[in-house]
Specification:
By secondary structure, the protein is of the alpha+beta class. It folds into two domains: 62 residues, no CATH class; 33 residues, no CATH class. The strands form two sheets. A two-stranded antiparallel ribbon has the order 1-2. The radius of gyration is 20 Å and the shape is elongated.
Length: 106
C-alpha cells in the first residue's frame, strides 16, 4: 500500500508506511494535543505543521529535562538557580577534560 507525496508548506514529504508503533505514537500525539486544545480543528497540513510539532516540542522538552538532570547528577553540568527561580545550566569546568574524553570515545 503506497502513499503519495503530499505538499506541506512548500516542502515535499514522502508518506512512507508506518509501523504500528509509529502510527500509535502519532495517534497519541494527536489525541494529546486535542486533550489540551479540545476546540481545535485543522487541515492535515495544519495538524502536521502545528499540532504534531507542538507535541514533539513537549516531548523533547521532557527528554532534555531528564538529560540535564542526569548530567547534573553525574557532575558534568552545574545547575544555577537565579534570583527569579529560573534554572540555567553550564559545563562543570573541573570535569571538562573527562567530558572531552567521553565524547571522543563515542
Amino acid at each position: 500500500m503506497a502513499r503519495s507525496l503530499r505538499r506541506v508548506s512548500g516542502r515535499q514529504i514522502r508518506g512512507a508506511l508506518m509501523s504500528d508503533r509509529e502510527q500509535n505514537m502519532v495517534k497519541k500525539r494527536i489525541l494529546s494535543y486535542l486533550v489540551r486544545h479540545p476546540d481545535a480543528q485543522d487541515t492535515i497540513e495544519g495538524i502536521v505543521n502545528w499540532w504534531l510539532l507542538e507535541e514533539r516540542i513537549v516531548s523533547i522538552a521532557k527528554d532534555v529535562e531528564e538529560a540535564l538532570s542526569s548530567l547534573v547528577n553525574d557532575g558534568w553540568l552545574l545547575k544555577i538557580v537565579r534570583e527569579d527561580k529560573q534554572e540555567s545550566y553550564k559545563v562543570n569546568m573541573d570535569r571538562l577534560p573527562e567530558i572531552i574524553t567521553a565524547l571522543r570515545l563515542e
